[in-house]
Write a structure and sequence with these properties.
The complex is a heterodimer. Chain A is an all-beta fold. Chain A has no helices and 11 strands. Chain B is built from no helices and 11 strands. Classes of the chains: A mainly beta, B mainly beta.
């Protein structure tokens, strides 16, 4: 295991369609984060998991967004009824948490979504 | 809510030292301050992290004053391959689960 992987790397969809992205973290990492990054901006926090528990969700994560990490390993991020404003790079990161302070996050290559 | 500010862009020449500062207030008191490098169409890559004072690794140094209201990433002797966007990442004091990236500094290194 050489790092965080994300699939697909690119996704083009039509407005109104549903899309699902997958993230495979570094194998021993217990925390998994999702971020969204639009062109020219820094990544924005969306949500994170500690093992299989989703501990925090940003206001950016509307009702159309859902994330899961069913067995505390890989995670999926689903966007329902996509809108053009959802076009962005979706980044996943993982870390090993063993107490304070927070562990270092390592990022995947991202999934670039384009909604037409 | 934590707020971060970085210079939008910086220019440098190969072989020079570059210092990039991130101003951050209302950050979590028990979190590291972390810096990342990002190339186009790639995920951020970890550079360095620290809590207070000075930290150095094989690629950079990080200076954090006692009040932790800013941090400065120092890149010694930059090369063309250091041309990238650099971000600081901090935790929010009011919501320690929330992480906030800086606005990003685009570093351009010239030959």
């Amino acid at each position: 295991d050489t790092g965080v992987s994300q699939n697909p790397r690119h996704k083009i969809t039509k407005r109104g369609q549903n899309v699902t992205f997958r993230c495979d973290p570094i194998s021993e990492h217990n925390r998994l984060y999702w971020y969204r990054q639009t062109l020219g901006q820094g990544p924005e926090f969306l949500t994170y998991f500690q093992n299989e528990a989703q501990l925090e969700k940003s206001r950016l994560l509307s009702d159309r967004f859902s994330a899961e990490r069913p067995k505390g390993s890989f995670s999926t991020l689903e966007i329902q009824r996509t809108e053009q404003g959802d076009s962005a790079m979706y980044l996943c990161a993982s870390s090993l948490e063993a107490g304070d302070p927070r562990g270092t996050q390592y990022f995947g290559p991202g999934t670039r979504l384009l909604v037409l | 809510l934590a707020k971060t500010t970085q210079p939008i862009s910086m220019d440098s020449y190969e072989g020079q030292e570059v210092n990039i500062t991130c101003s951050h207030n209302n950050i979590a008191t028990n979190d590291y301050i972390t810096w990342y490098q990002q190339f186009p169409s790639q995920g951020p890559r970890f550079i360095i992290q620290g809590y207070k004072t000075k930290v150095t690794n094989e690629v950079a140094s990080l200076f954090i004053p006692a009040d932790r209201k800013s941090s400065t990433l120092s890149l010694p002797r930059v090369s063309l391959s250091d041309t990238a966007v650099y971000y600081c990442l901090v935790g929010d004091k009011g919501n320690t689960d929330k992480l906030i990236f800086g606005t990003g500094t685009r570093l351009q290194v010239f030959p």
